[in-house]
Amino acid sequence: MALDSLRLTRFRNHAASELSGTGRFNLLTGENGAGKTNVLEAISLFAPGRGLRRGALAEMAMHHTAGGFAVSALLNRSDAAEPVRIGTGTQAQRPGRRLVRTNGAETAASALSEWLGLFWLTPAMDRLFVDGAAARRRFLDRLVLAIEPAHARNAARFEAALRERARLLFGDDEPGAGWLEAVEAQLAEAGSALAAARARLLAALDTALADLPPTPFARPRLGYQPGGSLDAGELAAALAAGRRRDRVAGRTLAGPHRDDLLVTHADKAQPAALCSTGEQKAMLIAITLAHCRLADGGDPQRPRILLLDEVAAHLDPLRREALFAALVQGPAQVWITGTEPEPFAAILDHAARWRVAEGAVERIG
């Protein structure tokens, strides 16, 4: 088990919702707009970043109420004698500042990845293969984070160094060459670690996809298009050589912030962006199933959580059955939403069930 219980306070349309007695599978049903996805979004905030909707913190607090919001949970780990209490939220005085606590002690959001691994699929991700590269990088980083918690720290170091280089390079004052060189060295070191983790994950994931037992889901082939050298020394040299070009462009043009994930329908040898919507969704699910198998070989003490928002809505019975059969054999605690319980008949006997209506959660099974 991963999350033993979950509490939402003034989060979106949930004034005070509590879910306890969780299971390996957790099913939330209710009408559209009831607040099911809000529960998944609350859980997604137990990972570094902005959650599955990438919303602004100030927008997450319940409308027409004073104060910020709070989300807390008891996290069960096999290496801990008692569940770990994790929590995150905001205060009314600083609605844009996120607070994170573990067992009552304030910590950085990046440290959350050391406690658990989180991954999700949402309807908005159905456009992943036709959207810009930034969305695919976020998707890829979420895959990496579920297995390598240090990836969050490397990403934070890289973003900080990238901002500092931009401040020095594009500011009005001429920076000292030595200071700019030092910042570029930090940028290259963090960027090399970031890119290497992405490349490692994709190589392992591509192997896992090839080893998956036959499923009715389209099988993707993955590739990696780096935005710069994976070697720190070479990347630092490229940054130094590209200063004039970057000043003209107004941005840094080499580095892992330019990476892209390449996905091809293996059977058709066709780029995913040119495939049908159904094929694209099937490839996303295949990647998720392979990732679950891959994560099973990671740190057994670090729980994994998979959030699936309306995943069964557009799957035929054969593909739903294949998806649930694979999830039953995987290592993750699964949280699923849907409007009705019928599409989830295959897992109802395994699931803790809640009915969500107008921001209220009721246990029904």
Dominant shape? globular
Low-confidence stretches: none
* The CATH topology of the largest domain: Rossmann fold
How many structural units, i.e. domains? 2
- What portion of residues belong to β-strands? 15-25%
CATH superfamily of the largest domain: P-loop containing nucleotide triphosphate hydrolases
Distance between the termini: 17 Å
Radius of gyration: 21 Å
Overall helicity: 25-40%
Which CATH top level class of the largest domain fits? Alpha Beta
Mean pLDDT: 92
Q: Could you state the order of secondary-structure elements as H and E?
A: EEEHHEEEEEHHHEHHEEHEHEEE
Structural class: alpha/beta
Number of helices: 9
CATH architecture of the largest domain: 3-Layer(aba) Sandwich
The major β-sheet equals: 6 strands, antiparallel
**How are the strands of the largest sheet arranged?**
2-1-4-5-6-7
Would you report the number of β strands?
Answer: 15
Explain this structure to me?
The chain has helices at residues 36-44, 57-60, 133-145, 150-170, 177-211, 232-241, 243-249, 277-295, 317-328; strands spanning 3-11, 14-20, 25-29, 70-75, 84-91, 94-102, 105-106, 117-121, 220-225, 260-265, 270-271, 304-308, 333-338, 351-357, 360-363. With 365 residues, the protein is α/β, with parallel strands linked by helices. It has 2 domains: 1-116 and 302-365, P-loop containing nucleotide triphosphate hydrolases (Rossmann fold, 3-Layer(aba) Sandwich), CATH 3.40.50.300; 135-275, Glutathione S-transferase Yfyf (Class Pi), Chain A, domain 2 (Up-down Bundle). Strands 2-1-4-5-6-7 form a 6-stranded antiparallel β-sheet. Strands 8-12-13-3-14-15 form a 6-stranded mixed β-sheet, with helices on both faces. The mean pLDDT is 92.
